[in-house]
């Protein structure tokens, strides 16, 4: 379980570092037709985490009260509102994960009527979250242009990071 907790946290931090680099206005900027803004992706990640991890072991991960399609509506968010959405999703996840231990990994959960082990559901959720955080990082990188501060090993600096 600790590996899942650590991996979710690693991605959360990456996204927060990327979002911190962009202006408030840029959080709502769509860079390609049919695309999403950082704020919309945050709304989707939060909606997904809240739905999946509310009553994680006892109810379907796709809650009837979730309106997934509305998560992609173009709505302008202030940084505080977006951050509040972000934090709410991550808090639901944190609480759910803190209640699990390694012996729970083989228990069954349901997502959209499909039975998965807890381990499979967590792998699926990490992958889904990482996918969208990659989008946030790419959008932030595009929006910052030359002012971008690398979140990993900068280009042409690999030797400096090799032991």
State the distance separating the first and last CA atoms.
30 Å
Write the CATH fold name.
Answer: Four Helix Bundle (Hemerythrin (Met), subunit A)
The parts where pLDDT drops under 50 for at least 5 residues are none
Derived from helix and strand composition plus strand pairing, the structural class reads: mainly alpha
The total strand number stands at 2
By CATH, the superfamily comes out as: dinb family like domain
Give helix and strand order, one letter per element, not per position: HHHEEH
CATH class: Mainly Alpha
Individual helix count = 4
Overall mean pLDDT score? 95
Helical content (DSSP H or I, runs of 4+)? 40-55%
Number of domains: 1
Sequence of strands across the biggest β-sheet: 1-2
The shape, in one word, is: globular
* Cα radius of gyration in angstroms: 17 Å
User: What share of residues are in beta strands?
Assistant: under 5%
State the major sheet. Answer: 2 strands, antiparallel
């Amino acid at each position: 379980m600790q590996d899942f907790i650590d991996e979710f946290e690693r991605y959360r931090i990456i996204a927060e570092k990327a979002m911190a680099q962009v202006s408030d206005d840029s959080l709502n900027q769509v860079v390609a037709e049919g695309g999403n803004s950082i704020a919309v992706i945050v709304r989707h990640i939060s909606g997904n985490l809240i739905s999946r991890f509310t009553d994680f072991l006892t109810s379907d991960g796709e809650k009837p009260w979730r309106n997934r399609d509305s998560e992609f509506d173009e709505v302008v968010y202030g940084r505080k509102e977006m951050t509040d959405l972000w934090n709410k999703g991550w808090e639901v996840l944190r609480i759910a994960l803190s209640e699990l231990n390694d012996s729970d990994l083989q228990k069954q959960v349901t997502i959209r009527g499909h039975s998965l082990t807890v381990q499979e559901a967590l792998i699926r959720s990490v992958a889904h979250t990482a996918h969208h955080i990659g989008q946030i990082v790419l959008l932030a990188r595009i929006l910052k242009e030359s002012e971008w501060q690398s979140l990993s090993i900068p280009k042409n600096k690999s030797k400096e990071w090799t032991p």
